[in-house]
Amino acid sequence: MSIALRGVTKRFDRHVALKDVSVDIESGSLTALVGPSGGGKSTLLRVIAGLERPDSGDVLIDGQTAVDVPVQDRGIGFVFQHYAAFKHMTVWENVAFGLRVRKMRRDAIRERVDHLLHLVQLEGLGGRYPSQLSGGQRQRMALARALAIKPEVLLLDEPFGALDAAVRAELRAWLRALHRDVHVTTIFVTHDQGEAMEIADRIVLINRGHVEQTGTPRELYERPANPFVMSFIGPITQLGDAFVRPHDIDVRNIPAESSLEAMVQRIVHLGFEVRVDLMLADGRGAWAQMTRDEVDQLELRLGQIVYVRSSRETRFHSDLPSHAVLGNAG
Ligand code: ADP
Ligand code: MG
Question: 175: helix, coil or strand?
Fold first, then answer.
């Protein structure tokens, strides 16, 4: 099912949580909704689900206006960050709950729940209680429960937010694989740009209630619409007025055409990667992301004078805030 928002505005008292937001979500896609906390991500999901009614604008589900369609008739599965399972019910019963409410036949319920537990890799754990699961297993149970009603749209609001990094990484890979299997239109909220880059087909970056940019992870990374997008999607530094990815800074011992003089301020070894803090002649700081081999070859040390230039840089026209020009200084 495709989803489209057309000029959606949502206020809470005087606070504008969404300002004239228009977004298109393709049927069967996996979209990440990213942005800083308080930017309006959850509100956007709740508007799609029908838990909030927009003050103006329209929500289209498969091209049909859905603003007056009640939550339970929108065919939407929802998973929140802090998923409240029924503690007194087993995992199996938790997954079956929505189907019992819908008065599905018992043997059909059994078949569907067993299949879902297999899908989320919890087969054999159906008899446990939620408290007997790990955090990652509980989130997978939440997903099985959301999928039980065969939703056409799956909305996930920071579903892995409360878990530690290793478990999150595992669930990310798992969600990607699950999406490949069930192909339900999925919108995934995260404040972690790395997570979004890794799993999404498309990213919608939302900030202060409006959409900064929509595109594939690569488009946002390589052709950011403005400095905010560029700094949100990956590391950023500045050489003069140009915004540069720190791995696109070329550091040398001898001057080259259009290079700038800089002094090495700090060298931080992070394993394969080395972070080099620089002070430019104009007094401004910058940093370069280099490999250990590059640093060894240049015999970099503190206080050394080096010559830097960017192999690729981005300039934004301040009079055209949503337009980026990608120059190539190399
Ligand atoms: P995000 O999910 O990106 O962190 P939210 O959509 O939760 O952001 O919130 C966007 C803004 O709207 C925030 O400033 C938040 O405080 C406000 N907000 C959200 N829900 C409500 C509500 N029910 N009542 C009042 N303000 C709200
Ligand atoms: Mg939120």
Answer: helix
The binding-site residues of ligand 1, defined as CB within 6 angstroms of any ligand atom, are 12, 15, 17, 35, 37-43
Q: What is the pTM of this model?
A: 0.86
**Nearest atom (ligand 1) to Cα of 46:** 6
For 13-65, how does the pLDDT look when each residue is reduced to its tens digit (9 = 90+)?
Answer: 999 999 999 999 999 999 999 999 999 999 999 999 999 999 999 999 999 99
What are the residue ranges spanned by the domains of the chain?
A: 3-227, 235-310
In angstroms, the first-to-last Cα distance of the chain is 45
Closest CA relative to residue 216, chosen from 205, 227, 228: 205
- CATH (residue range 3-227): 3.40.50.300
CATH for 235-310?
A: 2.40.50.100
CA gap 65, 77 in Å, rounded: 19
Specify the residue with its C-alpha closest to ligand 1, atom 27: 12
Contacts of residue 200, defined as CB under 8 A and 6 or more positions apart, other chains included, come to 30, 31, 32, 188, 217
Q: From CA 57, how far away is CA 6, in angstroms rounded? A: 5
* Tens digit of each residue's pLDDT (9 = 90 or more) over 274-303: 999 999 999 999 999 999 999 999 999 999
CATH topology match: 3-227 vs 235-310: no
Distance 210 CA to ligand 1 centre (A): 13
Please enumerate in sequence order all residues whose Cβ is within 8 A of that of 231, keeping only pairs 6 or more positions apart, or say none.
Answer: 243
- Type of residue numbered 24: D
The residue type of 172 is R
Distance CA 15, CA 244 (A): 35
Query: Are 262 and 306 spatial neighbours (Cβ–Cβ below 8 Å)?
Result: yes
